[in-house]
């Protein structure tokens, strides 16, 4: 079987000359469908840059990122945006909810952007799962960090992307909320048959993954 | 060409026909008006000068030399008339305006219809593309599940090898002990010591057999998780009860801390089994006269259960592997103790099948802290663990 997500000889350097930072240094990686992969490494090891490349948010200096065998950087900017919207859901450390929209509007926003009809029953199922039925009309600013992140997870799940990329999703949360959010992400992703790639510096979280990839200085040290 | 497209083409053709019919009718009416006026004029002229009847008829019938137009205009001007004010001219103008309007309206309507049709077509195409993608997605997911099954089946084949390998050690020890007793003159005390060791090995064999029974059930797809609404503390108490004697014999204080109780969806039988496996592991790798504490907390979307011991702990680099099948720690206590590396693997599978998780952290008082979560709202239908 082909991997759902693959990098081939991926390179991204920042700066030049003696101050060059090798954020991604000839990295080969394969992520399999339905797997929960944790990418672990110290801060500054190039994890976030890698995740941004996997999601097509940033272009590499050289090398390829293949999603379902398709080289995403060969796509035109416009096609890439559509492809990203349909295939990938993002969960960020800083939640990135739209402040002027309420919880429900935030969750269904990506579906609307794609010109699709909202499957209310499916989305409500997710909202019940994250335990926020009573917060549908609340604005993000009135929610706790844990609630905001759960809303952001619901937003990523609601559009039913094949892949969910999470960048330190619990970086701003205390340990109980962290566990809650991670277990939610993990079980939802497996319930809906999605592939989860999560960046974390926390090895306890990484234990819950099916596979752990360790990154050091832009290189995969162990997979 | 599908039915809808055919309908649209027919509609467009019909519209075009109607427009042409309307314009044709108008032009015909304009011609009629001109004809009527000519006849009127002829009639009036002949009434005034019946003697010129034949030349009037000839001229009005179309036999007028071209250069006479200028003369006509001059005469009209002389008497202050304008040809444009004439009745026929006005009627023709009106008819032409009407025809032009209908033509413009028709063209606008037709282009609008074409535009709408194109947009509908584009939307349908996008919808088809999306549908294709979803189907592909489903196919790939199914393929993934099938691949996993094949992989696990292959792993099961290695299970037999592993089991026989695991059984070898205690059986060899038993055989050695029995042979020594057979061939060597031993004092009563020595005999007793050997018998004690034999009993220990039999204990190990029993334990192994127990794990293998569980494992084979799991691999043979005999474990069906059937969640129902039950109090989670009841399930936990059952697990504590199952290991209590083992802990008691080793002077380990096993306690379930006070907390609120709630009903959450889980399979009580198999979840108890999972909890018992975690507790059994904690007791097994804890020194005598220590404690194992079970604590329940209620998170936003899941219950969190901690099993904290003062045992040997799990080294950080092994933490993510202890939940794998047949994985056994590298520590001396683990290598020497009985076990097949099945208990925690089974616990993880049972918990994950119910949307739960398990991980291990370093305990606050040394040892390890196994942390389990189970969601309040999960898939409430039964799932097979495999």
| Secondary-structure element order of chain B, N to C | HHHHHEEHEEHEEHHEEE
Our Rg estimate of chain A from Cα atoms comes to: 17 Å
User: How many distinct beta strands of chain A?
Assistant: 10
What class would the helix/strand composition of chain A place it in?
Answer: alpha/beta
Question: Averaging pLDDT over every residue of chain A, what do you get?
Answer: 87
Distance between the termini of chain B: 48 Å
CATH C-level class of the largest domain in chain B: Alpha Beta
- What is the percent of helical residues of chain A? 25-40%
Strand fraction of chain A equals 25-35%
Secondary structure category of chain B: alpha+beta
**Unreliable segments of chain A (pLDDT under 50, ≥5 consecutive)?**
none
Described by strand count, sense and barrel closure, the largest sheet of chain B is: 5 strands, mixed
Q: What's the name of the CATH homologous superfamily of chain A?
A: P-loop containing nucleotide triphosphate hydrolases
Coiled coil (chain B): 117-155
Pfam families (chain B): HATPase_c, HisKA
Keywords (chain B): Coiled coil, Kinase, Membrane, Phosphoprotein, Transferase, Transmembrane, Transmembrane helix, Two-component regulatory system
Transmembrane segments (chain B): 95-118
Task: Explain this structure.
The complex is a heterodimer of chains A (223) and B (386). By secondary structure, chain A is α/β, with parallel strands linked by helices. Chain A has one domain (34-56, 76-222): P-loop containing nucleotide triphosphate hydrolases (Rossmann fold, 3-Layer(aba) Sandwich). Chain A is 34% helix and 26% strand. Chain A has seven helices and ten strands. The longest helix of chain A has 17 residues, at 175-191. Chain A starts with a strand and ends with a strand. Chain B is of the alpha+beta class. Chain B has two domains: 3-135, no CATH class; 224-384, Histidine kinase-like ATPase, C-terminal domain (Heat Shock Protein 90, 2-Layer Sandwich), CATH 3.30.565. Helices cover 63% and strands 12% of the residues of chain B. Chain B has helices spanning 3-48, 53-60, 68-78, 87-183, 188-219, 232-249, 268-284, 332-336, 343-353; strands spanning 224-225, 228-231, 253-256, 263-266, 291-298, 302-308, 357-362, 368-375, 383-384. In chain B, a hairpin with a 3-residue loop joins strand 5 (291-298) and strand 6. The chains are: A alpha/beta (223), B alpha+beta (386). Chains A and B meet through helix 5, helix 6 and helix 7 of A and helix 4, strand 7 and strand 8 of B. Chain A: One of its GO terms (molecular function) is ATP binding. Chain A: Keywords: ATP-binding, Nucleotide-binding, Transport. Chain A: Pfam families: ABC_tran. Chain A: This is ABC transporter ATP-binding protein.
